[in-house]
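Good day; I would like, with your permission, to put a structural problem before you. I would ask you to consider whether the tokens describe a fold that such a sequence might reasonably adopt. The full record is reproduced below for your convenience:
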Amino acid sequence: MNLFRKALRLIYPRLPFTYGRCRRYSAKTGGVERAITAFRSVSGDEGVSVGSAVREQHGRDESVHRCLPPDVVVFPRSVDEVSALAKICHHHQLPIIPFGTGTGLEGGVGALQGGVCFSLRKMDQVLDLHQEDFDVTVEPGVTRKGLNSFLRDTGLWFPVDPGADASLCGMAATSASGTNAVRYGTMRENVLNLEVVLADGAVLHTAGRGRRPRKTAAGYNLTNLFVGSEGTLGIITKATLRLYGIPESMVSAVCSFPSVQSAVDSTVQILQAGVPIARIEFLDDVMINACNRFNNLSYAVTPTLFLEFHGSSKSMEEQVSITEEITRDNGGSDFAWAEDEETRSRLWKARHDAWYAALALRPGCKAYSTDVCVPISRLPQIIVETKEDLISNNITGPIAGHVGDGNFHCLIVLDPNDPDEVQRVHSFTERLARRALAMDGTCTGEHGVGQGKRALLREEVGPLAIEVMQGLKASLDPKNLMNPGKVL
């Protein structure tokens, strides 16, 4: 275990805080004990837990960051309870860490300074559905699958799909996206309004209470300030989201290519041709082999694109015709079609299982997913260079990505007890992030900054932008209680 922790520190060095400092609290201190008594007066005994198993469950996500449990976990049932509990934390100067479903990939729920985890799973209601206006308001315990199940008979759906069945307010907090972002956008484009409980317990409606216009030019964009803030500015307790009509038809296809370059060139050319493609996902030969083995499939073990088309039957004929012509010109194979819902679901399940398929390549090892994004014109260069870097440094890192919007991941599988391999992986991830920055890209397209990318964020946006962010943080959270140690 000590070797594993050392390995994690090499991959994710513990960086000094760039904004504020906060005591490391312990459940033994009087402040926490007094706060727990007050918490129980708000949420009852069943709404407060100090059990070690519950605290550990809420101190980790799906990342390789080590578990850092909070001192206490609270389970509020309403925004009024969240506000009352936050006021208690503010009075006792206890850190506040929001928790949705724990599916994050950058250690965003770890209690770096101890404190109180607000688990929001009991707030799980779909509150307001306006079918004619294509919007809905949800509480933070509602997941994307849960919402789409609720919408099943309405002809509407929410298309942002990060793979995991994440909570929708958690997706807003991390600015999640996923396979459908090339057509429907990320959470930033699909959140109309947020209800947020600030560090002192005040309740803010970022676009005004009950407002849900499709666009606005009224004042600063407070909604997008909180989208992607990763719990460092407040607790999102409601989100009003855009909905879309379910397409008349959906068809998926798989196409293999002789090289990484030809597959990514096809992606760029399809987008440049104006094809309104819904999904276009890239898997390299290592990743497609892992998916074949894990899901008992038989796709050619070569660089591969998974594609999906949405629209009317007539419009899809044109989309497919243009796309097939482009892929053939780049040496692509004939499309393997998936038209019925069951076959399409099986195809996309294979893509969403990529994390577990990669882990299965080296049983007993650990996985870490990188996450960079570049302008699509730079995709061929960065993926080819990254592939060469992986091979030359003998790193197991299958590549998969949402290449339609320039975002891709290396699902690195490593032995944390091998110091040499850990160091090679650490050096590779640094090179990859800086390669993306050198190509006018970002160190994170969708996972967020969390614990491990704070130094890279500073390199990306520059010291003045960091100072502005610190000023915003200080204005909203002067005691640095909201998820301290993340982002800044």
